[in-house]
Known about the structure:
The chain is α+β, with helices and mostly antiparallel strands. It has a single domain, classed as Amidase signature (AS) enzymes. Helices cover 22% and strands 19% of the residues. The chain has helices at 8-26, 34-43, 86-93, 136-143; strands at 29-32, 54-58, 97-102, 122-123, 126-130, 149-154, 165-168, 198-204. The strands form three sheets. Strands 1-3-2 form a three-stranded mixed beta sheet, with helices on both faces. A three-stranded antiparallel beta sheet has the order 6-8-7, covered by helices on one side. Strand 2, helix 3 and strand 3 form a beta-alpha-beta unit. The protein is globular.
Amino acid sequence: MRRGDASAAELRDIAVARVEGRNPELNAVVSRLYDQARATVAAGLPDGPFTGVPYLLKDLGAHYAGAVTSYGSALFRDFLVDHDSEITVRLRRSGLVIFGKTNIPEMGLAAATEPRLFGPTRNPWSLAHSAGGSSGGSAAAVAAGIVPMAHATDGWGDPDPGLLLRPLRPQTDPRAQPHGAGRRRRMGRHAGLWSAPAVGRIALA
């Protein structure tokens, strides 16, 4: 992009074509936001560190205005949101072009991405194997070369599903933790999980 070898529209179209080519066997992307991505590029992108890079959101609490946030559950299959989450605002501000949302376990509460609502996500290196979880859809999309990186979260330490990826997890300063270094309170997104799940991304190693 910065060298001028490709435009944001070209990168978007390549990523869309890769979704359409690989997703039938992987089931990594469960929501397509192609029209929104075209409108985003046409309106002009902010000058950020990732301007023009196509990106996928994990379908767990990362709201995108006008799109459904399903949490991988039939309970929320029609939960159409009217605003962007703060993480979505910041991702867009960095210049990323969001064009879809990725599969997760139901409510993000499993180490394998196999929700009843959308069905299992498969490991691109071996379709008979799991892509792990709870960021299995994002992990599979990156490992398959659909996108160079994708949105992921870490509530308890996502397992390494053998996809040769590098999770980029924000580090909390233990000095700012009132409950001791490395500890997080149980009262977070889900009862029983440590609070403040980390939001980061998965990228090619």
